[in-house]
User: What shape does this take?
Amino acid sequence: MNSLFPKRTRFAIITLTFALLLAPLSSAVAQQKKNTETPLPSVGSPINAIIDLSSSVLNSAAGYVDVDPYSQFRDARYSNEGLLSERDEMKLGNEVHKEVGKKFKLTTVGQPRANRIGQRAARASQRANITYQFHVVQDKEINAFATPGGHIYVTTGLMNMANDDELASVLAHEVGHVVARHSLKTMQQSQMLGGLVDLVGSVTGIAGNTAKEMGTLAAQVVGSGLLATHNREEEREADFLGVRTMSKAGFKTEGMVTMFQKIQRISNTNRDLLGAIFADHPDVDERIENTRYEIKRMRGRR
Assistant: This one.
């Protein structure tokens, strides 16, 4: 991406140019029709339409984006309907946590801070009824992820680079994944795991709900990398839920913007420090722009 011209600005400029090129043709056609046809009641001239379009385009080019990037999420309602029951989700989450502990080195260093900030965000979320647990992974990579049932993990590498508001933005984002049941939806849709539909696809509960089956499924989930699998639309939704949760919890929402900016700088200088999870996230410039839009909207500036 050319950093001087973000995607929406380039699109706006192209649209304006196209509109201006059509102006002479529209005027010529209008003149010909005027000479050969009976006039009809006017609903607006082509030049007025072009002026209106130009005004809208210029507003976009100046940074005043008229398109709501989160419109599809505003009326969303979240539940476990059609997925694993909430009770079984908690059981699965606990089993997955055991497997995460085998694969990653968990540490108590920084955990009180992560828990304090994370619980504050969780209480302000749209799914405050479940118990959240926040864990710290000893790793220099900058990464975070959530599993079913409210277990959320963040690396020491990320914690060391983030102030409290920036850390809140990451944890609120991960809480957003839990709120929207993104991991459950990914597991339900996945064709990677043998027997997944039989074990997880039941609306009423896990078929043959035994500790052995739960443990086997949890090991498959962790080993497959499904924990880090979210499509870009889900990441946008988690950003949306996260920044709104931050505001409700009393954190400085600008922390999400500055966190993205730090990630952007690191991606340009030492991309190896970024966890693979960021490869599936939307473009950082887009995320910054969307977050600023939502902050302005929440502050009533739009």
